[in-house]
Structure formats: structure tokens, C-alpha cells
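Run L,D-TPase catalytic domain-containing protein through structure prediction, thanks.
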Amino acid sequence: MRVEVGAWRRRTGVALGVAGMAVPLTLGVGAGTAQAAASCTAGTGPYQKQVESFLGRPVDGKQSPADCTAIRSFQRTHGITPAAGYAGPLTWRTMDTILKQRAAGKNPNKAGACPVNKGRIACVDLTRQLSWVQDGRKLVYGPVPVRTGRDGAETRTGAKKVYHRSLKHWSTIYKVWMPYSQFFDGGQAFHATDKSMYNPPGSGGCVNMRSADAKAYWNLLRNGDDVFVYGRKPGT
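Sure, done. The structure for L,D-TPase catalytic domain-containing protein is below.
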């Protein structure tokens, strides 16, 4: 999980002026870590207005206890740490990705970046963290949010093909089950995960999917089907 500290520490390291809502200077281990996780910051973050707008809060650019509670709930849902309610860059980047996904609507290939002359093809847009299946220009499934490779383990871009399928694959590298695995590039695969699609910093290179979406891809794709990956994951 990505720790969103940086400017948050600098801006909230001193007393915050709200009893019971200060964040400790040091995010240590043991009791200190537990205290930090349970705390809520009164500090105004650099993306305060954008985050307030996303959450449907009054947009005044000033942190309030209600703002902090709403931000912290979002952070906890998606594994952004510390979940202290600070409107920092990682929190806003996650929200901005969600907004871009919503804007895609039912026309994710409007820009024509994914080939339309291949017949059935699974498209992966790393920039918007979206995937869909199309047949020519016809949208067959999606678009759906995905979780792709983290910095240093990026999902590789380019034209690929599904070359191996495993309904219940066991990863010998990460020691986890990878349901509905469909491999398309040197160990990188579509597969289901229990994590949030927005859980930072990302996967080990695979295209993580919600279980229902991974199952749908399993039923739609076969060995030899085309896959096209393009763009760049935010934060990599």
C-alpha cells in the first residue's frame, strides 16, 4: 500500500488546533502507528477543493471534521495510508482516475487507440485504468475498472495474445490464488482479486479485475484472442 505522507507530514506535524484530531509527528510502529491510523487531520490538503467536490462536500477549500471523515472513509475503502483524512496527491489522483473512468461512459474507445480491425480484442487503457472487450467497433463488455502494474512492475504495453488460461491459478511468486487467469504476456494476466481496483500502488504487473469481470472475460476470451495494452498508469 502507498503511504501518503509527504506534504501531509510537513503541514500537520505541529499541533493542529483541534482537540483529539492531531496527528503524531512520527508515524512509528506499535501504539504510534495505531494512533496515527485512528487519528483525523485538521490540516487542509493541496487538493482540498477537488476532493471536496468529488465527495459532494461544500467546496470551500478548508478542512472540516466532516470533510476529514468523508476523506478518511474513501481512503480506508481503497487502502490509501495513512487514512487520516488528508486531501493529498495520492487521494486526488485516485479520485481523478475514477472521474476519467466515469467520463468514458459506453464509448471507451472514442479516441480509437485500441485496434478495431482485429475482431474480438481485449483492450487495456493504463492511463484510465480501464479495460473492455470489443469486436471490431462494437463494445462487447465493459468498460470496467482494473488495477495494473505498480511503478517498477508496469503492465507492458503493445499488442499481445492470450496464450494460457487457468481457472484457478496459484502464483508461485506471490503465493496467492489468481482466479480466472488468462495470460497474455510473459506471466502477466487478467485475473480476479479481492483488493479494491484503486488500492495503491498497483499489481505486480497483472491486470487485476473484480471477480465478476474476470469471470466475464473468462467466458468471452479464448487462447489466441488479441489483447492490446496502451497508455501509462498514473503514478508510474
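The chain is about 25% helix and 20% strand.
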